[in-house]
């Protein structure tokens, strides 16, 4: 069978543009970047359509290209040096003995297994909280938890040291927990 018949580029925008945009938007939190990444995905797919082997579905192939474009996006925007404040290992969340401070310690969110969280509302709040992270923290968080990348790969993509990675991840988690506590669980 001809490789061209396995792909249907005339229907890519109709069939996949909205899905790719939604996938990308959750990760980059910027409409302009999301649109550019989806456009680059289609352009890259078109240029490489002859190399499509049919091992994955057309949709999965396009999403794999999109995922790589997202990683390229993070690589490009994070070429800037990390500010010293972003890597400062001191936290107001902890005391000298590295225990939680009384006012910043985690509180129980009171979620029981039998309670249902309204997913759409929760994800809207998560997106809001994620958008408040510093760009490099957001990149580390997205690559780790949304793109399921290994820490070594993230360090290489973002050109950061492993210790910087762990500080950024730690701070991102703390800030997300604090924001979610204030805006979702303690409404």
Explained architecture:
- This protein is mainly alpha-helical and 187 residues long.
- The chain has two domains: 3-77, Orthogonal Bundle (Rna Polymerase Sigma Factor, Chain: A); 84-185, Arc Repressor Mutant, subunit A.
- 64% of the residues lie in helices and 0% in strands.
- It has nine helices and no strands.
- The chain has helices at residues 3-6, 12-28, 31-47, 58-77, 84-87, 119-131, 135-146, 151-158, 162-185.
- Helix 2 (12-28) crosses helix 3 (31-47) and helix 2 (12-28) runs parallel beside helix 4.
- The chain is elongated and about 60 Å long.
- Mean pLDDT is 81; it is low at 84-90.
Keywords, please?
187 residues; mainly alpha; Rna Polymerase Sigma Factor, Chain: A; Arc Repressor Mutant, subunit A; 2 domains
**Global Rg:** 20 Å
Quick one: how many beta strands?
A: 0
Q: Which fold name corresponds to the CATH topology of the largest domain?
A: Arc Repressor Mutant, subunit A
Average pLDDT over all residues: 81
| Strand proportion | under 5%
CATH architecture of the largest domain: Orthogonal Bundle
Q: Outline, from the CA principal axes?
A: elongated
Q: Which percent bin holds the helix content?
A: 55-70%
Poorly predicted regions: 84-90
Secondary-structure-based class equals: mainly alpha
Distance between the ends: 58 Å
Short description:
The chain is an all-alpha fold and 187 residues long.
What's the arrangement of secondary structure elements?
Layout lengths: L2 H4 L5 H17 L2 H17 L10 H20 L6 H4 L31 H13 L3 H12 L4 H8 L3 H24 L2
Helix pairs in contact: 2-3, 2-4, 3-4, 6-9, 7-9
